[in-house]
Each structure stands twice: as structure tokens, then as C-alpha cells.
């Protein structure tokens, strides 16, 4: 995830972005009522303190006190519109506070609300105006108990404090909004990654289904074809072919049940997982192919096949299984040579080769995806696979897989 992909994560974009609560709601929530009442009470409290200080001077006419009271009350009531017009209200109260000290509290609340609900530019503009006119109010209506310079410094510091506090609150809201967006985006990306992982797992299961069932079903097809074209075969051969068909059908059902079990969710079946093939079980695959009538020559040069890594051994097994299946399909009657060499640190090399077919026979149709799946399987295991025809019309598949040193 990059910032250019999601511009709302940029600080500059967030600084000018509209945050929740910046616009006035059609109907105030309970929180809005509580905050607005609290702001009104704070402004009214400051206005009462200022009005009491003016009254204690003793030199202010009663008419002026009445006007100050009315204007102060109106300034406090105007705060109910601070969400709708924060910039205009803050500017108006700033101008009003020049001649009315009782409007100072409402001005501070308006400046704070402006800093919270509006970006930096309008806040800085109105805040600068408030700082510029800050010396005018003590000059027009000085406080006898406080010096002019002290009043100016106190007013400037108070304005800066309110503006800073408001901008800190807005920055925190921006941070929370950014974190929420990032969390939402991360959750969405996690869901996409989970879906992608599930899709890749299903593709792997589909390739596994092709490798396993193609081997079993090819045996069924070969022996069923033999029974069809040689109905006068000896009883022993018919019985052996029928036995291979039965065993292959049973194994195909077992493999299919295993694959369906993987596709099911956990707890949907009580069957345990069947052991996965390894390099040590390669001999069983060769024996099965020989019983099916294939001519297979094995050159096994691995000293300890049981010590091979599980993933590497399983990949070698699947490569040999697919190659034997393809040989039965496309080169019936040809002798297949399986060579396995290597060891820890040197890696494992498997080569399956067959010459051109010597017996004409009806070939079993194939999808052509087996070698593609083997190439992907070898690549995922950290190795490589090569395949192609030989000069004599045969075919060879050669794969090299890693076997780390102990």
C-alpha cells in the first residue's frame, strides 16, 4: 500500500480534508447537545465574571451595564450556530470583543470551535486577526486593576492557547480517522489475500486431482481397452486385468474422497488424513505400473530416500506418476526408464524417458495440462523442470529439485 494509491493518507490531504462533525447535522445528537451546552455555560461564566469586574469599577453607567449584559447574552447564544458558520461567527465575535469585554468568553469558544472544525488556513486568518486586535480592547476599555501591557500579554497568550488547543484536537481527529481508514484498508486487503490464498489452494487441489486421478483412470482405460480388444484372452489375464481395474477404481475413489475432504471445512468429516507420498513410496508406484503391464526400468541412486525432504520427495513422486501416466497414454508398449539421483546438498534429479511407441494402439485422450502442472510444481518446490522430444521420437522429462545439506 502506497500513499499515492490512497491520497487520504497524505498529511497535506488530511490537513484540508473534511472531518466528521465539521458540518452541522440536521439533528443534534446527545453528544452535540452536551458539548453545546457546556460551551454556552463556559462562555456565560466568563461573561458574568467580566460583567462583575465592570460593575465593581463603580464608574460605569447603568445603561452601559445593561447594554453589556444584553450583548454578552447575545454573544453566548450565538454560539449555538458555531457548527454552521464557524468562520463568520469567530470573526464577528472577534470584532465585537474589541468594545465588549463580556463577549471575550464567547470569542474564545468560537476560536476554539473554528480551530477544531476548519482547516489551518481559515483558522490562521481569523486567529491572526484576533491577535492583531487584541491590544485594542484593553486600550478602549481598560481594567483599572490590571496594567495595559499585562492585559495585552494575557489576551494574546489566551488566544494562542485556545487556537493551539483546538488545532491539537483536530489533529487528533485526523489521526484517528487516518488509523481507521488504514485499519479498514488492511482488513479489506487481508480478505483479498485470504481469498487469493483460497483460490491458489483450490488450484493446487485441482492439479493434485489431475495428477492422482489421471493415473488411476488411465489404468482403468488401458485394462478396459485390453479386455475389449482381446475378449479371447486367457482367464488368468482377464482375472488379472479385472483385479487391476477393481484396485484402480478403489484407489481412485479413495483419492477423490481425500480431495473432497480437503475441500470441506474442518469438522465436516471424521476421517483422518491419509499419508502423503514420498520418495520412499516411489517403488510402490513403479510396482503398480508394472502390474498394469508397463515396462519400467528404475535406476535408483539415492542412498537414503526416506531422508529426503517431504516436499521434494512428494514432488518427485508426482512427477514420476504423471510421466508414467503420459507414457501409457502416448507411448503404449514402450519401455519407460526412471532415473533418480542425488543426495543432501547436491539436490535431487529425476529423469523419465521413453522411446517412440512400438505397439499401435488407441491412445487415451489427454488435456495437455499435466506437464504445465509439473513445471509449476517443480518451480514452487524451488527447482526446475525440462521436457521435450528426443531425436529418436521418444520423450524425456527431467527435473532438478533442491535437497539442502544436513
Automatic annotation (TrEMBL):
<feature type="transmembrane region" description="Helical">
    <location>
        <begin position="87"/>
        <end position="116"/>
    </location>
</feature>
<feature type="transmembrane region" description="Helical">
    <location>
        <begin position="63"/>
        <end position="81"/>
    </location>
</feature>
<keyword id="KW-0597">Phosphoprotein</keyword>
<feature type="domain" description="Histidine kinase/HSP90-like ATPase">
    <location>
        <begin position="314"/>
        <end position="403"/>
    </location>
</feature>
<feature type="transmembrane region" description="Helical">
    <location>
        <begin position="123"/>
        <end position="140"/>
    </location>
</feature>
<dbReference type="InterPro" id="IPR036890">
    <property type="entry name" value="HATPase_C_sf"/>
</dbReference>
<keyword id="KW-0808">Transferase</keyword>
<keyword id="KW-0902">Two-component regulatory system</keyword>
<keyword id="KW-0547">Nucleotide-binding</keyword>
<feature type="transmembrane region" description="Helical">
    <location>
        <begin position="33"/>
        <end position="54"/>
    </location>
</feature>
<keyword id="KW-1133">Transmembrane helix</keyword>
<keyword id="KW-0418">Kinase</keyword>
<dbReference type="Pfam" id="PF07730">
    <property type="entry name" value="HisKA_3"/>
</dbReference>
<dbReference type="GO" id="GO:0000155">
    <property type="term" value="F:phosphorelay sensor kinase activity"/>
</dbReference>
<keyword id="KW-0175">Coiled coil</keyword>
<dbReference type="InterPro" id="IPR011712">
    <property type="entry name" value="Sig_transdc_His_kin_sub3_dim/P"/>
</dbReference>
<dbReference type="GO" id="GO:0016020">
    <property type="term" value="C:membrane"/>
</dbReference>
<dbReference type="InterPro" id="IPR003594">
    <property type="entry name" value="HATPase_dom"/>
</dbReference>
<dbReference type="InterPro" id="IPR055558">
    <property type="entry name" value="DUF7134"/>
</dbReference>
<keyword id="KW-0472">Membrane</keyword>
<dbReference type="Pfam" id="PF02518">
    <property type="entry name" value="HATPase_c"/>
</dbReference>
<dbReference type="GO" id="GO:0005524">
    <property type="term" value="F:ATP binding"/>
</dbReference>
<dbReference type="GO" id="GO:0046983">
    <property type="term" value="F:protein dimerization activity"/>
</dbReference>
<feature type="domain" description="DUF7134">
    <location>
        <begin position="31"/>
        <end position="173"/>
    </location>
</feature>
<dbReference type="InterPro" id="IPR050482">
    <property type="entry name" value="Sensor_HK_TwoCompSys"/>
</dbReference>
<keyword id="KW-0812">Transmembrane</keyword>
<feature type="domain" description="Signal transduction histidine kinase subgroup 3 dimerisation and phosphoacceptor">
    <location>
        <begin position="202"/>
        <end position="267"/>
    </location>
</feature>
<keyword id="KW-0067">ATP-binding</keyword>
<protein>
    <recommendedName>
        <fullName>histidine kinase</fullName>
        <ecNumber>2.7.13.3</ecNumber>
    </recommendedName>
</protein>
<dbReference type="Pfam" id="PF23539">
    <property type="entry name" value="DUF7134"/>
</dbReference>
<feature type="transmembrane region" description="Helical">
    <location>
        <begin position="146"/>
        <end position="168"/>
    </location>
</feature>
<feature type="coiled-coil region">
    <location>
        <begin position="180"/>
        <end position="207"/>
    </location>
</feature>
Amino acid at each position: 500500500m502506497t500513499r499515492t494509491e490512497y491520497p487520504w493518507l497524505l498529511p497535506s490531504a488530511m490537513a484540508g480534508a473534511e472531518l466528521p462533525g465539521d458540518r452541522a447535522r440536521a439533528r443534534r445528537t446527545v453528544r452535540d447537545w452536551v458539548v453545546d451546552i457546556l460551551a454556552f455555560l463556559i462562555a456565560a461564566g466568563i461573561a458574568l465574571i467580566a460583567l462583575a469586574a465592570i460593575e465593581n469599577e463603580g464608574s460605569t453607567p447603568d445603561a452601559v451595564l445593561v447594554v453589556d449584559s444584553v450583548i454578552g447574552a447575545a454573544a453566548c447564544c450565538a454560539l449555538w450556530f458555531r457548527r454552521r458558520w464557524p468562520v463568520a461567527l469567530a470573526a464577528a465575535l472577534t470584532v465585537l470583543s474589541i468594545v465588549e469585554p463580556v463577549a471575550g468568553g464567547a470569542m474564545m469558544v468560537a476560536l476554539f470551535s473554528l480551530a477544531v472544525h476548519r482547516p489551518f488556513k481559515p483558522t490562521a486568518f481569523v486567529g491572526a486577526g484576533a491577535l492583531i486586535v487584541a491590544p485594542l480592547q484593553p486600550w478602549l476599555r481598560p481594567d483599572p486593576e490590571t496594567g495595559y501591557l499585562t492585559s495585552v500579554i494575557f489576551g494574546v497568550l489566551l488566544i494562542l492557547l485556545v487556537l493551539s488547543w483546538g488545532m491539537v484536537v483536530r489533529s487528533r481527529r485526523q489521526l484517528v480517522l487516518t488509523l481507521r481508514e488504514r485499519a479498514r484498508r488492511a482488513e479489506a486487503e487481508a480478505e483479498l489475500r485470504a481469498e487469493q490464498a483460497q483460490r491458489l489452494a483450490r488450484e493446487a487441489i485441482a492439479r493434485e486431482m489431475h495428477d492422482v486421478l489421471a493415473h488411476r483412470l488411465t489404468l482403468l482405460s488401458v485394462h478396459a481397452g485390453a479386455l475389449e480388444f482381446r475378449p479371447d484372452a486367457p482367464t488368468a489375464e482377464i482375472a488379472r486385468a479385472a483385479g487391476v481395474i477393481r484396485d484402480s477404481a478403489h484407489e481412485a475413489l479413495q483419492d477423490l474422497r481425500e480431495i473432497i475432504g480437503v475441500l470441506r471445512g474442518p469438522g465436516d468429516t471424521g476421517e483422518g488424513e491419509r499419508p502423503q507420498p514420498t520418495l520412499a513410496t516411489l517403488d510402490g508406484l513403479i510396482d503398480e505400473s508394472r502390474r498394469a503391464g508397463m515396462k519400467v526400468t528404475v535406476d535408483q541412486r539415492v542412498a537414503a530416500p526416506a531422508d529426503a525432504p517431504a516436499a521434494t520427495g512428494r514432488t518427485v513422486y508426482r512427477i514420476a506418476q504423471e510421466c508414467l501416466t503420459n507414457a501409457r497414454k502416448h507411448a503404449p508398449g514402450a519401455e519407460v526408464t526412471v532415473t533418480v539421483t542425488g543426495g543432501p546438498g547436491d539436490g535431487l534429479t529425476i529423469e523419465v524417458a521413453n522411446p517412440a511407441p512400438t505397439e499401435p494402439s488407441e491412445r487415451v485422450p489427454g488435456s495437455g495440462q499435466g506437464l504445465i502442472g509439473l513445471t509449476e510444481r517443480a518451480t514452487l518446490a524451488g527447482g526446475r523442470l525440462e521436457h521435450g522430444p528426443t531425436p529418436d521420437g521418444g520423450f524425456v522429462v527431467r527435473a532438478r529439485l533442491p535437497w539442502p545439506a544436513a
